[in-house]
Amino acid sequence: MTARAERMRGWGFVAPALIWTLAFFVVPFLVMGAMSLATLEGRTLVWGVSLANYAELTEKAYLWRAILVSLEITLTVTVVSVLLAYPLASIIAFRVPPRWQRLALLLAILPFWTSYVVRSYAWLLVLAREGVVNQALIGLGLVSEPVTLANTRFATVTGFVHFFVMLLTLTIYANLIQLSPNYRRAATDLGASAFQTFRHVTLPLALPGIVTGAFLTFVLCIGDYVTPQILGGNTELTVPQVIMVQLGRRADFPLASALAIVLMGIVTLAYLASARWLRLDRL
Amino acid sequence: MTRLPALLLSSAAATALTGAAHAQELNALVWCDHTDPALIEPFEAAHGVKVNLREYEGTGAALALLEQSRPGDWDVLVIDGIDVFRAVEAGILAPLDPADLPTGDFFPEVVMAENNSVDGVTYAVTEKFGYNTISYNAAKVDPADMENLATVWSEKYDGRISIYDYYLPVMGLAAMAEGIATADIGPDDLETIGGVLSTMRARAASVAGVVAAQTALATGEVDIVVGGGEWLTAVLAGEQPDLTWTIPEQGAVRWAQSIGVVAGSENPDLALEFVKYIVSPEGQARLATSSCFWGMPANAKAGEFLSEDQKAILRWDSQPDYLARSQLYPAPDADLDIEMQDLWLETLQQ
User: Fold this and answer.
1) Which residue of A35, A44, A151 is in closest CB contact with B205?
2) Which of B15, B161, B263, B283 is the most buried (most CB within 10 A)?
3) What is the number of CB-based contacts under 8 A between chain A and chain B?
4) Closest to B128 measured CA to CA, from B284, B270, B314
5) Which residue of chain A is at minimal alpha-carbon distance from B223?
6) Could you say which architecture CATH assigns to the domain B21-129+255-324?
7) HSE (CB half, 13 Å, CA atoms) of A19?
8) Which of B272, B312, B266 is nearest to B288 (CA)?
9) Is the ipTM of this complex over 0.90?
10) Which phi and psi angles does B204 have, rounded to 5°?
11) A190 touches B at CB < 8 Å
């Protein structure tokens, strides 16, 4: 095979992925970028190069607040999900006998089998004033009156965490199961306590799986519209909710695109911050 | 105006509409109440055609979708009554012959010729209307309190209110509470309206869309929905008769939806037949009691096809009084619309 033919063959293998990326990521991104520089004058879209939509971020407090709310919720969800998922993944990887691990993982991802929207509405019912949680709290004598749980940030975070703990469990488990038990045995032989083994051996080795899962959680959470819309009760708005309002009646695609670009910027920063540990190939 | 922007939206539509040019298929962009088989199947059977329905939310999204579609992709459009002029400006609606429309049988207040026509040419016809007012649980609140907007969002009901998640009707109600007519709302009124919204917002447990508001009311999460109405509680009334609605002494905001034929339709005759079916007494009765949401039929003769129970839920006999005490949705121009939307979002983020 000539060098030219070999090059062509190489391009042939790469072409599908390249075309896919160009068609479904690069071109839409460029369109969105161009749209964010256009303006809506009255109800007419005017193409051009204007930073007016980005300037609105500094002029309208509710837009900044939406970015802040999105970041607060996303960081809370990511941290809580990691704290819950690591022990679960660790138990499945190290405590559950290998022949039962597949069943344990299957049980762990059961919530994925339910519709995302249905699951969110189910949480709304569970957290309602007359829902299961409040009935339990009153039944146990912990509170005398129902506590407001639904339509709050707590509800939004709960709905997200329920979903993302499953995702993180998978990525962390995939990492932990690859660790040779000899590392932990060696640490124990050298006199390390269980905590020291975790702190200095297992955790550093598991970091790629944790960071990969945390990054995916961050990306999916900050761009999600459904959960805050259903569970948050619009008591505060995230960026995706504000984007939807811009599109719904006024079709303000330029401002919506600018907000989407800002979200992309935040995700890029999150990527750069975690790139050192990211191992997407391990998914 | 360029056609590039809604490429993102239209790609899905183009896929969904493969075969749209088939002679015996009608493509309609509608609200969810038109997707009830009990409404559509009689038309399909009578004409031997298939009606393809696509739901949308928000006039802006619908117009963007239509502007990016190929001529002939769509045949029928259902649209908010106050936004017909926007569709006409965009060249989306085809003229209708008023002689084809039974508007003489309509409740006079909802013919709304000024909304459905531009420069004397009719482009749409009102098909359904109702009220954005106060829905409540009669077993949990004092019905007498619901007769005055000031007591509805008073301290007495702190945390027991949900606000319907659409700024135009809710801001219309806020304006009426302050004695401002919805048709007269201007930039100078926004400070006053904003004050009412803040009070409302401070008392509210949530700001909810249709399903979330129904869920909140049905589960006891809240006892009052500001901006609700028959469209919110009618489908719940069978199982929970305490869920009801009223028009307070300050009045209510009236919503209306219109239907028209899309310009460039490849089936204009069939599209017109569909419009005529929807505004016929039989079609109107079915549309009024759609499984998605109920609302008053524009055609008063639909009453002949509704049961007494259905008419009772719709408050048929009270319509003359309700129509007299209600005002149409605020219909802001583009600049005022931005200001109103900004005020709404600022209030939600408080």
Assistant:
1) A151
2) B161
3) 111
4) B284
5) A129
6) 3-Layer(aba) Sandwich (3.40)
7) 6
8) B312
9) no
10) -85, 140
11) no
